[in-house]
Amino acid sequence: MNPEFEKLTPRGLTTLAMEEAVAALLDGMLETSDWRNWDDFRDTPRRVAKMYREILTPQPNNWTTFDAEQSDMIILRGHRVVALCPHHLLPVEMKAYVGYIPNKKQLGLSKLARVVESQLTMPMTQERLAHRVVDALESALEPKGVGVVLTGVHGCMKFRGVETDGDVASSVMKGVLLLNPSARAEFFSLIGRP
Fold this sequence. Notes:
- The chain is of the alpha+beta class.
- The protein contains eight helices and six strands, in the order H-H-H-E-E-E-E-H-H-E-H-E-H-H.
- The strands form two sheets. It has a four-stranded antiparallel sheet, with helices on both faces. A two-stranded antiparallel sheet has the order 1-4.
């Protein structure tokens, strides 16, 4: 992990700057600057900036917690999220499998999905997202163990380069899910084959 990246906080999304950048991109793609008068392209800079704003503005997560009444594993399976690859700014469609073993606090069930989404405030690699989700859960809950598996279909691999329909899997485990082979096996058994 790059420590400088971890200190980075995303700046506010500047719609005008994004629109100007998309217009410059279109200037580079098309032989004429008359594209601004064509119906197909007239609102493209605004639409693209709006799309990036939507992808990079997650719903707030209020971290609703309860006293943990048990220490059984809690798992969210197959939550769909869309991120942006930092290398090509193309979408990455992911499925998130997030689990933890409560210690003293337990998270409201719907908040598990929000934890993943709350980290998507800027383009980032799938591996970095997995680490950020684990770190956020560890910080908020201090669980006995936490694990995240992300599978993603990357636009940069599907539409260019190798042009594969294959997905990429990343996993991060901490606590008993890392150190205890039977707990780890239970986690992978419960999430099934992602």
